[in-house]
Design goal:
Elements: H1 2-32, H2 36-47, E1 53-55, H3 56-63, H4 67-79, E2 83-88, E3 91-96, H5 103-125, E4 128-135, E5 148-154, H6 156-171, E6 177-180, H7 182-190, H8 194-201, E7 206-210, H9 213-220
Helix pairs in contact: 2-5, 3-4, 7-9
Length: about 220
Amino acid sequence: MVFVKKRLDQKTKTSKNFERYFYVSLRVLKSLFSSMTRVKLLRLYLLSPEGSEFFVRELTRDLDEQINSIRRELENLEKIGMLSSKTRERKKYYRVNVKFPILEELRSIFQKAESTSLKILKKIQKMGRLDLLVLTGSFVGVPNNVDLVAIGNLDKKKLSDYLSRELTNELKSEIRYSVFSQEDFLYRLECKDKFSYDLLKDSKNLIMMNKIEKKIEDVVGT
């Protein structure tokens, strides 16, 4: 009976340890993905060569985010143990903590996401002239009526077959999309079309390619 009680106590202890670890992991994951600035930082750190380190102003420039947002998210990531920091030549450098418990799992998530988005870009590039490609909606986890917007002179049948069949089957989810010619999209911007403006303005959206950046700036600046 004593032996059985010990086994039960051990089992209970193991169960409690697992439960504690499970909820700690949930809190960590929730904190990891709660802001787009943080997602950008995670992507940079997890997909950069091992040992890469960056300082605040460098990250502000490279990620096109406000310095206060970058500083706050770096502190959050350091607090949960994913990043470590050290000061050198009056600059504070942050790098990945290789002992972070779920580091490889997180890296795998970002590698898979990166692989999928690049695959989509390469596929669509083969369907004609692609000027601008934006992933939004389900691809970036924000509510939207579309998931993908392609601008250019593309073979619409090939694009429809790929997005409606091949990609939908691969991702197990329907892909909602819109296609515009370059002229039509620029005209929409000129007319202050909210959809077109929000597509470019929302930092959560992922711009995979933009060959008409200068033309867009000319139109928006008018």
